[in-house]
Design goal:
Rossmann fold; 12 helices; single chain; lipid metabolism; about 55% helix; 7 strands; alpha/beta; seven-stranded parallel beta sheet
């Protein structure tokens, strides 16, 4: 009987995966699209710019360091697929003055046309025990990681609504899904992006604008190298359990999810499972995603209730249900990475 149920679950998940494109958002075509990437001079931001440029997009790179911007521009331009593509650089601190950010993005749109996709990747990280972190750094991280995404989004949202199309991406972190030792300043600034994204998606979905929140794991970037210099031992031990990803690998997944209009973007099976556990009432963009999240919640509730009852039959049932749930979620995780 259990095998029959298992076969049914697997078949049902596969069926939903096949029909999901029929009701999901229409994918955004990057060929010829104008993509703005904040924090685009290095790390994940630069890798996202490269991935979009590979697909024919026109790129505006935004960051503070003009020298790094010019170097990033040269690197991105190597991946052009036609001679019409353009990479524009603009130096500005996206977290300091909204009106300056608005002016800069207005100029970018005058050069390359309306923004089709905004990638909010500007950010900084700081780790340390709560009482060891300078008080000013709590404010700094909220300004850079949160307001540094609010300002560019506010600057382009009106035009997107007028055109009734667009994508907005917020690059958060796995530390924005769960609070971690040593990230009392960093995690809240990344959690804030999720709250903004969930609220904003409700407002702009009627205008055919879709929000994506990306939760990358530790990624081999200059920012991570700088963070590791002061990271507490406990935080290092936690981080080492998941390994380090490469920026180009992360960028491919994030860009794919943003193009498809997926709300959550996670990297690898571990990231997928973490997103399922912490999804809460986040928006879903397909029946498959919604049912997988619901199945995980039901599985968790069944395990919790049955294990505390301490009866052997119920424990066997728990393991049976867990096997079915794990099978469907594993299939979902595999298909999500295809």
């Amino acid at each position: 009987m259990l095998l029959v149920v298992a076969a049914f679950v697997v078949a049902f998940v596969l069926l939903l995966y096949m029909i999901s494109p029929l009701i999901s958002p229409k994918p955004l075509k990057l060929n010829g699209a104008h993509v703005v990437v904040t924090g685009g001079s290095s790390g994940i931001g630069k890798a996202i710019a490269v991935e979009c440029y590979r697909q024919g997009a026109f790129i505006t790179l935004v960051a503070r360091d003009e020298a790094k911007l010019l170097q990033a521009k040269k690197e991105v331009e190597k991946f052009a697929i036609n001679d019409k593509q353009v990479v524009v650089c603009t130096s500005v601190d996206v977290s300091s003055d909204y009106h300056e950010v608005e002016s800069v993005l207005k100029q970018a749109q005058e050069k390359l046309g309306p923004v089709d996709m905004l990638v909010n990747c500007a950010g900084t990280s700081l780790s340390g025990k709560f009482e060891d972190v300078e008080v000013d750094n709590f404010r700094k991280l909220m300004e850079v990681n949160y307001l540094g995404s609010v300002y560019p989004t506010r600057a382009v949202i009106t035009t997107m609504k007028e055109r009734r199309m667009g994508r907005i991406m917020f690059v958060s972190s796995q530390a924005g899904q769960i609070g971690l030792f040593g990230y009392t300043a960093y995690s809240p600034s990344k959690f804030a992006l999720r709250g903004l994204a969930e609220s904003l998606q409700m407002e702009i979905k009627p205008y055919n604008i879709y929000v994506t929140v990306a939760y990358p794991p530790d990624t081999d970037t200059p920012g991570l190298a700088e963070e590791n210099r002061t990271k507490p031992l406990e935080t290092k031990l936690i981080s080492e359990t998941s390994g380090v990803c490469q920026p180009d690998q992360v960028a491919k997944v994030i860009v794919r999810d943003a193009v498809q209009g997926n709300f959550n973007s996670s990297v690898g099976p571990d990231g997928y499972m973490l997103a399922a556990v912490t999804c809460g009432m986040s928006p879903v963009t397909s029946i498959t995603e919604g049912l997988q999240q619901d199945a995980f919640v039901q599985l968790y509730d069944r395990q919790r209730d049955s294990l505390f009852s301490c009866s052997w039959p119920s424990i066997k049932t728990v393991f049976g249900v867990a096997a079915l749930g794990a099978a469907s979620l594993t299939i979902g995780a595999y298909l999500a990475q295809k």
